[in-house]
Write a structure and sequence with these properties.
Pfam families: PPR, PPR_2. The protein has about 450 residues and is mostly helical. About 70% of the residues lie in helices and about 0% in strands. The chain starts with a helix and ends with a helix.
Amino acid sequence: MTAVEFYLDARQRACAKVFAFEPESTQLDSSMSILFRSFKSKSLHIPKRCLSTQNPVENLLDTLKTVKETPPLDPQFTTISQTLIKSASKTLRNSIDKTLISTLSPTTVDLILSDPRLKLSKCFTFFTLLLENQTLLSFKLDLQTHLFLLVRLVKARRFSEVETILNLILIGENYRYPFHNFASSIRNLCDNPKIVSKLFNLIFKVYSDNSMRDEALEVFDHMDNNRIEINERTCTLHLIHLRKCDCLEMAVEFFRRMIDSVIDISVYSMTVVVDGLCKCGEIRRGRELVEEMSGKGIKPNVITCNTLVDACCKRWNFGELDLVLALMEKEGVEFNASTYKFLIDGYTSSGKIEEAEKVILAMWDSGMKVGAYLYTVVINGYCRFGNMENALSLFDEMTKREVSPSADAYWALINGFCKIGQVGKAERFANEMQEKGVELDKVAYHKLLQGRN
């Protein structure tokens, strides 16, 4: 693309921007400012009347018809652009002479970043190189330049690169911009609501990831107050961050803000909060939140309910467990394998072994196959309390259902019979175990020897 073609392309893009403005507007956005700065450079000549605030649209359109090439393009722009175009992405950083950076001007930087011949990835590399070598620049990269590239990256769905730049200019010690400056500039630069929404959501995420919670809430409130679409997934990530940082009450408060906003809340956000409450022992609050949200149309799923079931079983809170199971029945949430496992673990660890055995039978009745692990947990529970009759009965049932006993199941029976002095039965299971190719370990041998003595 020649110099003339490049500026003709810029002219076409400028016209497209102009037609998007209201005729009575007396201000041009940053993209137009960049174009004017380019025209005012030594590359092209544009009459001063076009820069007038009176009738800028008409003046610009009239002038674009007659604009003509004058002296050659800025040699810095030509040199760096050609270097970026020709260089491979992996060697790009080493290809640019850093002595050129100190000679750059704001106009040259804008021209390079808006050059349609350059791949966006190379523009990003060039820009980050400038940020890393700010001391070599004779000027500070203004906010408009940052946002111009950010909008291009968002449009191209290069979100990781957007986050990289946002971390530098929102979090970085030497190059930080306050959010209120960002907010007004974004709305002036881009009128595409989807692009604006994505950029604000990424700003929210960057603040959240860096534990800048007050700033994150400021962004959230700005989006909510200005009817900018808030991504529920971004909010869920913020809730997860608050939970990991043990900021439970902040997470609950933020979830309440989500409820009061226009966000379509999903069961996933609710489950994050319920999980945080359960981990802190606030099981009742978690259940009540599920009941409240169910009344608002946000129904719990099996993951939500399992979170409550697991918490109840680990804390042996069986009164609350009964309420949770009743809630599951009311909402039509069916048990899955994890639900049964949590119940069996909870009942056996608390000594309610017969209740655990009932759960195994319920699994079979529901059409779900029970594995050797769950049988072993219950058998071991019976053996711990010396109830070898029930342990043996459950072992026999397991084999009848063609579930192969594990080495741990044999060991539980051997240990249990040795404890009550029935070494003969213990040896029977030891022999059966060896016949199946499972070797006794030293602990099992030691138990049998102790029993004989």
